[in-house]
Each structure stands twice: as structure tokens, then as C-alpha cells.
Specification:
- 32% of the residues lie in helices and 15% in strands.
- It has 386 residues and is of the alpha+beta class.
- Strands 1, 2, 3, 4, 5, 6, 7, 8 and 9 form a 9-stranded antiparallel sheet that branches.
- Helix 5 packs antiparallel against helix 9 (310-322), helix 6 (266-273) crosses helix 9 (310-322) and helix 10 (324-348) packs across helix 11 (368-385).
- The longest helix has 25 residues, at 324-348.
């Protein structure tokens, strides 16, 4: 497949060690590019070394519109005593996950006295363009980049010795603005990224999210299910956040779920397959030909199941458990539970939760982290009773 980036700019990637608190951040000295391209109406957020081909990124995240944000890292939010960054750092974060990806700009700093942490108007504009694209907004990248003015608060008055076409590229237009060279050292970052921007969630999950277009997928199935439960469920939303509790997508990560699928018996595997959208089963057995938008018949669904060996069934389950759609669905379910939908959801799934999902002695649904914890505990008890 031919990849045509919409925007490309120089940036290094940071490695995050989350095994201890505060998290340790180490900037990789490798020269790299961040670039975004569109495929099937979804943006790919990519990072690669400059020597690597454009179609072989080291990081390739499929982004669901409005789920991701690309924002400047604010060192003021770090706790006192934490090591401060000595570079212009951007954070890619997600609404549906606690995962964070950090990058530092490798173009030449443009602040007075060469301050490596100062974001120039151009730097901020690059971040703003990327963030707008991640929100699904229409952006004329070439025009936005052409409007960048770096003369304010810049002692070089526009003369930053940049190399042509290496710092920022707006693709698809003959009037592409040019950028520069320069960089930050391997100690460019530090501190606890969980303090950045907003209250951080515990745990970790794959931050990349995707939504399939056309055919029914897991995310659509969950959204339809949640829509059917609406009607008075939002009453608990006014309770506030309550206690902190991980998202379901933070608890059910691939390292947890995939080994269970691999060790499952054939009866357990068939039971799990019964919860998948029928189109997923049928499409897994189809070649590229055929109408992929038509609703599969009962005969086609059964034929697909019969055609799969146990190994193929487990492979399909593993693919689903690793998919962005599955984790987006878990995040959506978490949000519905947090927003007052616990009683209806628990009842629909035949999960016994304490006090029916209501606050003790009232008809007000539990909300926030308390509701998610009650749901998880209810699932545990339901399984133990069986």
C-alpha cells in the first residue's frame, strides 16, 4: 500500500518505564519523524526513524476520532522535586485509556537564548494541527503551516538555519512550508507523566483505538446494546467521580485475556464465539470477493463455524481480544457504567451486583469508580456461584 502522509515533522520518541513510581522517562537519541496518514477514514499516527521507509513505522497507532489528544507537556503539573524536561515534549494521550506516548521535537529550539523548553508559535501550531486531525476536524494543513509566524519572541527573527523540507511538511500541496534541524539530548525528559494535563488513571492498555467502517463490529454492537439500555440511567452521573478505579480496558489487556483464550476448551471457545457479531465469523472465512455489507444468514454463520478448526477459532478469538475495537468497546461499557447505567446493564447481563447497582437506601444508581468496582465484583461473584 502506498502511504501519503498528511503532515510530517522531526521528533524523537521517548521510552516510558512504568515499573516504578514516579515513571522514568528516557528520550531516545535516534533521529525520527512523526507523521499522520489516512486510511479507510481513520488516521494513523506513526513514528519512524528517518532512515526507515515510510511504510515501515516503528509505531503505528490507528486513531478513533476524538479519542486521542496531542498536547504540549506542561512541566508545571509535575510534583516538586521531579526532574523537569529539557526539551519541547508533546504527549499523545487517550480518553479511553491511561496509556501515554511521549515525543520531543528535534527541530532547532527557537526561544530566546536557545531555551530548549520554549514552544515557539510554530511548535504550538504543529501540535494544534495534529490534535485537530485526531478530533476528526477538516484541516488545510498546507495553509495552516504557511500561516505560522515565528518572529515573535524569537531573537533570530525567522532565521533559524533550518534545513529545507526536514522539520515540517504539509503534503498534498505544492506550496509546502519547510522546517529545520536540531534536537534534544537523550536526557530530554523526566518526571511523572501521569500528572500531565488531567488526572491520570491507573493501569495500562493499548492506547490506539480503531473503528471498523461498513460492517457491524464489536464497538457497534456494544454501542447498540448500551443505547437500548438508556432511559433514566443517567441519574447517577451527578454523583461525581467517587473513588478511582481502572477502566475495564485497563483490566482486560491482551496479556491477561489472550492466555485464557489459548487454554480454553473447545466448548468454552464455542461459547465465546457465540458472543461475536455474526459478520466477524463469516468474514473470517471469506476471501476478498463477495458482498461484505450484507447481513449474513443463519446458514452462513453455521457454515463458518463448522469450517473452522479449534486452532482457527482460537486464532480468531485472539485477534478480537487484541483488536482496538474490543478495547474501545470495553472503554465505552466502562463509561456507561460510570454514568449511572449499572442497574440496567447488570440486569441485562444477569450479573448480581450489590444493592442492585443503587446507592444503599435510595434509588440513585452508583456512579464513577464505585459503579465500575461494583460491576467487577458482581462478575466475580456470578462466576464463583456457577
Amino acid at each position: 500500500m502506498s502511504i501519503v502522509p498528511i503532515i510530517t515533522f522531526k521528533a524523537g520518541i521517548c521510552d516510558v518505564d512504568s515499573s516504578s513510581r514516579p515513571y522514568k522517562i528516557q528520550a531516545s537519541p535516534r533521529p525520527g519523524y512523526i507523521y499522520l496518514y489516512n486510511e479507510d477514514d481513520l488516521f494513523h499516527f506513526c513514528w519512524r526513524e528517518r532512515s526507515a521507509p515510510v511504510d515501515e513505522p516503528e509505531l503505528d497507532l490507528v486513531m478513533v476520532p476524538t479519542d486521542g489528544h496531542f498536547v504540549p507537556y506542561d512541566p508545571k503539573t509535575q510534583p516538586s522535586g521531579a526532574k523537569k524536561p529539557n526539551a519541547r515534549v508533546f504527549v499523545l494521550k487517550f480518553i479511553s485509556s491511561s496509556q501515554r506516548h511521549l515525543f520531543y521535537l528535534q527541530s532547532k529550539p527557537q526561544g530566546r537564548n536557545g531555551d530548549p523548553c520554549w514552544f515557539s508559535p510554530r511548535d504550538l501550531k504543529i501540535g494544534e494541527i495534529v490534535d485537530k486531525l485526531l478530533q476528526g476536524e477538516e484541516v488545510d494543513v498546507a495553509r495552516e503551516l504557511a500561516a505560522i509566524n515565528n518572529s515573535d519572541n524569537d531573537d533570530r527573527r525567522g532565521n533559524d538555519d533550518d534545513e529545507t523540507m526536514e522539520d515540517v511538511e504539509g503534503h498534498g500541496d505544492s506550496n509546502e512550508p519547510h522546517g529545520g534541524t536540531g534536537g534534544a539530548g537523550p536526557d530530554a525528559t523526566g518526571g511523572d507523566i501521569r500528572e500531565e494535563g488531567e488526572e491520570a488513571r491507573e493501569g495500562g492498555a493499548d492506547g490506539a483505538r480503531a473503528a471498523a467502517s461498513g460492517t457491524t463490529d464489536a464497538a457497534t454492537a456494544v454501542r447498540n446494546f448500551l443505547d437500548s439500555l438508556k432511559g433514566g440511567a443517567g441519574a447517577g452521573a451527578s454523583q461525581g467521580e467517587g473513588k478511582l478505579y481502572p477502566l475495564l480496558s485497563d483490566l482486560l489487556t491482551p496479556p491477561v485475556t489472550v492466555p485464557m483464550a489459548r487454554l480454553a476448551t473447545e466448548e468454552q471457545v464455542d461459547n465465546l464465539l457465540s458472543f461475536l457479531p455474526p459478520s466477524v465469523l463469516v468474514l473470517s472465512q471469506q476471501a476478498d470477493e463477495g458482498d461484505r455489507t450484507a447481513e449474513p444468514t443463519a446458514a452462513a454463520i453455521q457454515a463458518a463455524k463448522d469450517a473452522m478448526s479449534l486452532g482457527q477459532k482460537k486464532a480468531l478469538l485472539e485477534k478480537v481480544l487484541r483488536s482496538p475495537q474490543f478495547h474501545q468497546s470495553l472503554a465505552s461499557l466502562t463509561m456507561a457504567i460510570r454514568d449511572g447505567g449499572l442497574p440496567s446493564i447488570a440486569d441485562a447481563l444477569s450479573i448480581k451486583v450489590e444493592n442492585g447497582g443503587y446507592l444503599r437506601g435510595s434509588q440513585m444508581p452508583l456512579g464513577g469508580g464505585d459503579a465500575v468496582e461494583a460491576f467487577v465484583e458482581g462478575v466475580k461473584k456470578s462466576v464463583q456461584e456457577k
